[in-house]
Amino acid sequence: MANSGLQTLVLEAGGPSYGITGGDLDSRRPSWLDGTNLTRVDVPGLYKSIFASSDNLTCSLNSYGGCTVGGGSAINAGLFFEPPASDYDLYFPAGWKSKDMKNATQRLYSRQPSTNVTSMDGQRYLQSGYYAARKWLVDGMGFKEVDINAQANDKTEVFGHPIFDYASGQRGGPAITYLQSALLKPNFELQTAVQVIRIERNGGKATGVMALTNGVQVFIPISSTGRVVLSSGAIQSPSLLMFSGIGDPSVLSRLQSAGKLSPNLHSCQWINSTAIGAGLFDNPNTFIELEGPSIESYTHSYAAPPPSDEQLYLQSRSGPYTFASETSVFWDTLTRPDGSIAGFQGTIDSSGFGEYTSNQTITLNIYGTSGLKSSGRVVLNSDFLPVPDDKVYYSSPLDGSNIASFIYKIFSGLSSSGLTPLNLSQNSTEEEIEKYITTPSQYALGSVNHWSSSCRIGKCVDMDTTVIGMRNLHVVDASILEPLSVNPQFGVMVAAERASELIMGMLGREMV
Question: What is the pLDDT of residue 491?
């Protein structure tokens, strides 16, 4: 985003693929949506199909985000969980503690609808997995059944219905809420299919951005009082800083030798910082396939939903296609001998995965969350594209041990649910579980694209989100967050609200 005086210009790398911005709708939806203004991204139940085909919705220059208006929020499952206060108080710096985030959180709640009952007829669908999990975790192991966001601070042995940022049976998120308000303002402009290459700067002052549009490089200047805000995500934003001469000097030397830096930028003007791209985090995840006689598996179909479900959705925005497929969610924590805390999250999907797709199979997804010790960094590959290195998952053996102990704990109560794990024996030892979850397979060590933490506050940006060494360049996206106890979307949006407060304060203005 480039801000020139009172004029705000948002540059979006993705094309006009989101339904609200026009474009070729027919190429982005199945035939059963013909005659509507809906694309596959608008229908929550089609979320998995976005990742199963190649139609540029997930390109984002390097396949780690959403290449459409709204970015990752336009293509993800839409899970919308408020981080507990402990995330801010334990891991974030001064100015970003829970007391500092209250107003930002309240503003987000007032702007962004969310619900744990997605169907407009008020019913919950595909609940066989929920009931089995409730019997297992609540009845069998004593987890508390809670309203997740109403009791956001409790993340130890809690269970409940997932909360989604949907509205009226359709996808929600910032493209549906914040963007719509912005588009009504006379001083706001959105340009799509514009790929920012780097920030042009004069020392510590950004002067504009170099961008690629219609295959041509163009310089887009800002005014003498303007600001540039990067919101390209935890993989791409650090890369843009590197291409702007801000980063590890060894990386900058490589970019300069390849002619990738601005010809006007000399090495004496580099801002040397090894914090750029460092601390990259993604939840280490494991899929555990569960089977039971009470389970009724359901797989959302892109091209041919069951006729009754198709009609429910088209006629009243009701039925299974009003949510992405997660039917239940739970959390727990572990306090280590040194007093530090590791967090864990589980979600249960409505269908099986991989080799296990019978009509009585569901998928349990186990994440490690806040307090984990492992992180990697954003690096540039041989083609100068940003990618994660190999340290993101389990570079600290403690993480594998902690997550294995959590799985071992919940497996001890699994028998009461009538569920049987298929790809990991229920009587596995903690050591066997640890080996399974840290060994690459289609069920373990796969990315969940919850990328964050690669431009952390206090290291890469200051408390006001200004890039350290710069005066008018900010980063406001998942890269400034510490690892959270929950899926990152809520936290990212709260961080944007908080950053808005701080940047407006720098300009002598207040949030309204």
Answer: 98
**Residues in Cβ contact with 498 at an 8 Å cutoff, skipping those fewer than 6 apart:** 96, 100, 101, 104
* HSE-up (13 A, CA, CB side) for residue 332: 20
The answer to whether residue 249 is domain-embedded is: no
Judge whether 117 and 126 are in contact, CB under 8 Å.
no
The response to whether 488 counts as a known ligand-binding position is yes
Is the residue at 129 inside a domain?
Answer: yes
Q: Give the contacts of 427 (CB within 8 A, at least 6 positions apart).
A: none
440 is in an annotated binding site: no
Q: CATH no. for residue 420?
A: 3.30.410.10
Distance from C-alpha of 355 to C-alpha of 353, rounded to nearest angstrom: 6
Give the range of the structural domain holding residue 136, as residue numbers without chain letter.
116-171+282-378+387-437
Task: Write down the pLDDT at residue 155.
Answer: 98
Query: What DSSP assignment string belongs to 269-338?
Result: G-EE-TTTTEEEB---EEEEEEE-TT-------SS---HHHHHHHHHHS-SGGGS-SEEEEEEEEEE-TT
Task: Determine the pLDDT at residue 16.
Answer: 57
pLDDT tens for 74-106 read 889 999 999 999 999 999 999 999 999 999 999
- Structural domain count, the chain: 1
The residues, ordered by sequence, that sit 6+ positions from 215 with a Cβ below 8 Å of its Cβ are none
Residue 505 lies inside a defined structural domain of this protein: no
In the chain, the N- to C-terminal Cα span, in Å, equals 20
Q: Is 196 annotated as a binding residue?
A: yes
Q: Is 450 contained in some domain?
A: no
Share of the chain above pLDDT 90, in %: 85
